[in-house]
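We modelled the chain as a single entity of 149 amino acids. Its sequence is:
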Amino acid sequence: MDAIINVLGIIVGLGVIGNRAVVIIGLLVAGIANSLGNAAGFHVSEETEGIHTRGEVWLSTIMSFSGTIIVTIVLVLPLLFFGLSQAIAISVLGGMTIIVLMGAFNGRQSGNGKKGALSLILEYLVLAVVVILIAYYLGGLASAMLNGI
């Protein structure tokens, strides 16, 4: 979830600048940093709980890094094959689809049935949309600053 929202925010925010290379470079730098940060956070969290074996801690660390970097790569792919506007739309649609699937899965896992899943899907989508809107407006501000306005 963190990776999806992070990547979508970067794509939309930097996309406002209108330079595909800036978006790709920004995504790769931020995606790697986010992947390493998530992995470190999971590592410390699992380690301080004191209930996991060393192997479990490292497995969690590796899985966290892998999951975050895979999401980053999947959502950056459209930028390599389509124009900037199309790529942004495809990445946002793909990211939102993954968020809906995660909400449905997590909602059903919680045992609250369809109503719980729909509630969680809506919550996840609202979070993503809020981040995307904030990133869009910050990207507009950055674009204005770069253009000397």
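As a brief sanity check on the tokenised model: The helical segments are 2-15, 20-49, 54-81, 84-109, 113-146. The mean pLDDT is 91.
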